[in-house]
Amino acid sequence: MRKIIHVDMDAFYASVEQRDDPSLRGRPVVVAWRGSRSVVCAASYEARTYGVRSAMPAVRAERLCPDAVFVPPDFIRYRAASRAVRDIMLRHTDLVEPLSLDEAYLDVTENKTGLATATRVAKAIREQIREELSLTASAGVAPNKFLAKIASDWKKPDGLFVIRPEDVEAFMPSLPVARLPGVGKVTGERLSALGVALCGDLQKIAATELEHRFGRYGLRLHQLAHGIDSGRVQPDRPTQSISAEDTFEQDLPLSDLAPHIEKLAEKTWAAARKTPRIGRTVVLKLKTSDFKSLTRSHTPPVPPASLQEFIDIALQLRDRVELDSATRYRLVGVGFGNFSEPDRIDNQVALF
Structure pTM? Predict the structure, then answer.
């Protein structure tokens, strides 16, 4: 039996802005660039009462909350705050698995501070974040990662919720299946057609029947419905991909994308140089004016050895796009994927 904590910072980007600028406290803050193509990075809880949410188009957020204060994102400050939060977590356990800048899993089955329970560890972490960083965090405590993440959302913002092992059996039946990871719109509709709305409904269906209808994910659904999750906290999850993308103010033809691809390639290359692993696959992502997405990728025999080589491959991928020349594009992204350890790369290159 593990003791897992999921820590989720409350409206993180917006909270950092409100902390650093007292004039923003208590006001509806939207972290986003203004413009017809911008999307909301974060919204303070004051803005959320108007229906403003992350990933929402900025123009819609402005319509919902005309008095909102728009603040351009400052990821340098957000990363600094995230590192400070991570340092606090590491005082209690080395088993910290970051999911993003604002959330992480912790395995405190054994903790460094000698606190008797995971609940006390979660309380200590939240108190230290509040006192030292002037930010708030919500936390969930449970015997596995899945339930800990459910719990951290239960009393947001600035809350703590605990699901003890002996409470799992009673807790699960009333949980909506929409809260299960992997249950999106399509799967939700398929479950609804079976008369399944709650995990209690799902528990009544045999694992073999779920596997027949949903494949391997059906077995996962069966386990989740009973509160079972065997995933371990992975403190050193290796880099799998790095990317950068840009949404244009005006749709552009393919022929005009080269400068943007070069700029994004520079950002991606710089970020990739900060990891000891080496990327093998170059990826180009495009989104057309009618929101159709397409990707092109290439894995050369030898990984790109320079920024210029990386840019050249990205531009070659652009030339592989075969849509009509009249097509206009609203977004372009450049990514690096298929990361491997350097010694593995050397061994593979030696075969050629």
Answer: 0.73
Burial 107-123 (b: 16+ CB within 10 A, else e): bbeebeeeeeebbebbe
Task: Enumerate the β-bridge partners of residue 9.
Answer: 137
Query: Quick one: which of 156, 116, 124 has its CA closest to 140?
Result: 156
Write the CB contacts of 249 (distance below 8 Å, at least 6 apart in sequence).
Answer: 35, 36, 37
Average pLDDT of the segment spanning 130-152: 97
Sign (positive or negative) of CA dihedral 324, 326, 328, 332:
positive
Task: Out of 21-30, 108-117, 322-331, pick the least confident.
Answer: 322-331
Q: Which helix (H) or strand (E) holds 100?
A: strand 96-100
Which listed residue (103, 127, 189, 211) is catalytic? 103
What is the maximum alpha-carbon separation in the chain? 66
Taking alpha carbons only, the member of 172, 285, 187, 261 closest to residue 223 is 172
Whole-angstrom CA distances from 3 to 20, 116, 122, 163, 278 are: 34, 11, 11, 10, 34
DSSP-H helix ranges across the chain: 12-20, 45-48, 58-64, 75-90, 118-133, 145-152, 168-171, 185-193, 199-203, 207-214, 216-225, 258-272, 307-319, 342-349
Asked if pLDDT for residue 289 goes beyond 60, the answer is: yes
Region 211-220: mean pLDDT is: 91
Q: Is the model's pLDDT at 191 over the cut of 70?
A: yes
| Active-site residue, 110 included | no
Q: Is the pLDDT of residue 352 over 50?
A: no
**3 state DSSP class of 303:** coil
**Burial (CB count <10 Å: 0-12, 13-18, 19+), residue 75:** exposed
